[in-house]
Amino acid sequence: MLSNHFQNGVETVRHAWSRIPNSEESQFVDDAVGLVRKSDGSSVESLDYEVIENFAYREEQARRGKLYVSYLLVVKWLFALLIGIGTGLAAVFINLSVENFAGWKFSLTFSIIQKSYIAGFLLYALINLVLVFSSVYIVTQFAPAAAGSGIPEIKGYLNGVDIHGILLLRTLIGKIFGSIGSVGGGLALGKEGPLVHTGACIASLLGQGGSTKYHINSRWFQVFRSDRDRRDLVTCGCAAGVAAAFRAPVGGVLFALEEVTSWWRSQLMWRVFFTSAIVAVVVRTAMGWCKNGNCGHFGSGGFIIWDISDGQEDYSFAELLPMAIIGVIGGLLGALFNQLTLYISSWRRNHLHKKGSRVKIIEACLVSLLTSIISFCLPLLRECSPCPESDPTSGIECPRPPGMYGNYVNFFCSSDKEYNDLATIFFNTQDDAIRNLFSAKTIHEYSSQSLLTFLVMFYTLAVLTFGTAVPAGQFVPGIMIGSTYGRLVGMFVVKYYKKLNIEEGTYALLGAASFLGGSMRMTVSLCVIMVEITNNLKLLPLIMLVLLISKAVGDAFNEGLYEEQARLRGIPLLESRPKYEMRNMTAREACGSGRVISLPRVVKVSDVVSILRSNKHNGFPVIDHTRSGESLVIGLVLRSHLLVILQSKVDFQHSPLPSDPRGGDRSIRHDSHEFAKPVSSKGICIDDIHLSPDDLEMYIDLAPFLNPSPYIVPEDMSLTKVYNLFRQLGLRHLFVVPRPSRVLGLITRKDLMIEDTENVNTLELQSTSVRNRHHNKRPTTRNSDVERPLLNGLLIGSE
After folding, report:
1. Residues 610, 10: Cα–Cα separation, whole Å
2. The whole model's pTM is what?
3. Interstrand relation of 652-653 and 631-638 (parallel, antiparallel or unpaired)
């Protein structure tokens, strides 16, 4: 009977393997970092953060009153609350699952190696292999965009680049369950980056009311459909992810501000801070409930918080030199890590992963086996050490079983009062291993040979694991690497300085901060996160010192980890500063010499279809003529809006003449929500629209649908100013025009200071023209001249 069950299991696995597509069967190739490529070869699309002030938008704004504006404000705060709750619960589920899988794995392994070392190793490797296989299978077959940390993709989204698939429901599911498998399987990666991506997915799904593909949606939540509103929600989700991963709400806010977002304002700061606070409440509530033994193996060591408030109290001036050396080491090793991962990821992308999903699965399984062999076999090369004399006040026992909170792991030792220092790091969850490295009052727990061995092997594993097709974060591996060489430096300081108040765990913390600063190049947010997770404010100046040094050293060699990976993925990030070469270039030189494809105000349907099929442009200038016959640019129409018009067909007309701009008989057949593209999806394609021959002979008046006030720059403006304007406003298109012939007026600061209530002090700051307009303001009735987005006096209509 057992042989029959085994045979059935083998057949099931063989059938599942045969269903995995290879490179010839797949319709498109997904690279290892989760960047989904469309069949037409394009992979990214810009977002419309600019307000499109077309006729539908102005009609909608005219209908809105103060009560509706207050309603939108309340809904925004409600969404911030829901994002915090959802991200906190997702983090609790991930951590609870990882800790329980790890606890069961270590308990079973240690119960078996008492009888047979080989059987214990096989079980340990098999459990890790099953968990990693489940993770990579979910990613390759269900959610390709869930691979990697997701932070470069989210950073690109907030920078104005939409990568298809990164914020979908299946990506969220793949990220959660894939993180459980990859982290629980013992790979050299963390769950903090995936938690940032998870928070962003939750925020995006809430903003669009759920998922229409899987019929999980609600019209009550479909309030914010514009890219601008989704950008604010995704920013809240990113901050919530960091707050949930580290229990660091302030660090989450600063992470969103410093690292991922390209656009910020004070109102958004309040909502992001509120979201992070809600996450902290949810996480701490769950931790309190789990302390009563309700969560299995999950306990106080589940979430990453390493309390070293009882560590080193003070430091001397002489210790600043070895601390500065830690900063230099962190910058060098961090820059080397970025360069090595860039080379290996590029090789994977260009050669290995082009062979299909099966190769990705085999690669991840081989990395899992290699990690299991190293973590299980290397501790055998070290002899066990006798336990130190126990100190009742320290609360540290020797030995402690692995997978539990504590130091001194007894791994294959001949005596019960011995421990294996290398197994204390290797044969533990990463959270507990970091807690052991950070721990105070444990001088001489580790030998320099063990720490150096772990540093070399784990650094190598982290480089090899980065880029595999599983959800992977780099925060925890970076902390592991940095705390190891930091503890090595601390051992040297303790030995040669011979001061009783020096703690090796303090230097381990500084090493962790230095490596993250040298690799990710974060400063303010990372500094606050390290203080929050260690609960030791006294070390703040030292953390600031090593972060500044490590970032300066790393910047001398290459860019940060996320910037390098974003470039590898083909994400066109606009950095905060323009390139130096742009100072000597103009806007005309940047836009090139290619012919601008424009549309007339009234255009034939067949011409629109032909233009959309012949190019991939996403914006088209609309041209009309004055009474004297002179050409006049009246606005910009988007490709997505044209596709909506073609699909609905309700705006087709038989006449090639423009509709009467002064006529009020024409009703609006669209609202602004109909033009919103579903987030992280392809939207409407021209090939999906079916038009009859009669439809192709009709016309469309583009006046109600175009943006009549696009941003415009003169052709001789320096490219540096153009770059700053484009990035800070979050634009997608920018018109370059010849030098204007005349000036209608000047706007200064005083012209923009218009208040709702009359105030003497305010009126003294306003210009005379604004003051007169404000005093003489009368209630006006809506008419077509006000509502029309065109300069009706300059246009020849049907007159």
Report:
1. 54
2. 0.85
3. unpaired
Identify the CA nearest to 149 among candidates 86, 241, 227, 235.
241
In the block, which residue shows the tokens 């953390």?
A: 543
Tokens of 312: 């080193």
Q: Which regions in the chain score pLDDT beneath 70?
A: 1-43, 210-222, 296-306, 309-313, 390-397, 399-407, 441-442, 500, 593, 660-673, 677-682, 755-799
- pLDDT at residue number 32: 33
CA distance 781 to 128: 71
Whether the CB-CB separation of 358 and 480 falls below 8 Å is answered with no
Residue 781's pLDDT is 43
Cα(479)–Cα(482) distance, rounded to whole angstroms?
Answer: 5
Query: Token digits for 232?
Result: 């604010």
Over the range 586-616, which residues count as b (16 or more CB within 10 Å of their CB) and which as e?
Answer: bbbeebeeeeeeebbbbbebeebbebbeeee
pLDDT of residue 7: 54
Per-position b or e across 498-518, b if 16+ CB within 10 A of its CB:
eeeebbbbbbbbbbbbbbbbb
What 3-state DSSP class applies to 150?
coil
Token representation of residue 500? 């009783």
3-state percent breakdown (helix, strand, coil) of the chain, nearest 5: 55, 5, 35
Are 545 and 17 in contact by the 8 Å Cβ rule? The answer is no
Q: How many CB atoms lie within 10 A of CB 561?
A: 27
Place of tokens 């498109």: 28
What is the reported pLDDT for 417? 76
Backbone Cα Rg of the chain? 30
Give the three-state DSSP class for 603. Answer: strand
CA dihedral defined by 69, 71, 73, 79, rounded to 10 degrees?
Answer: -140
Which pLDDT belongs to residue 793? 42
Contact 318, 450 (CB under 8 A): no
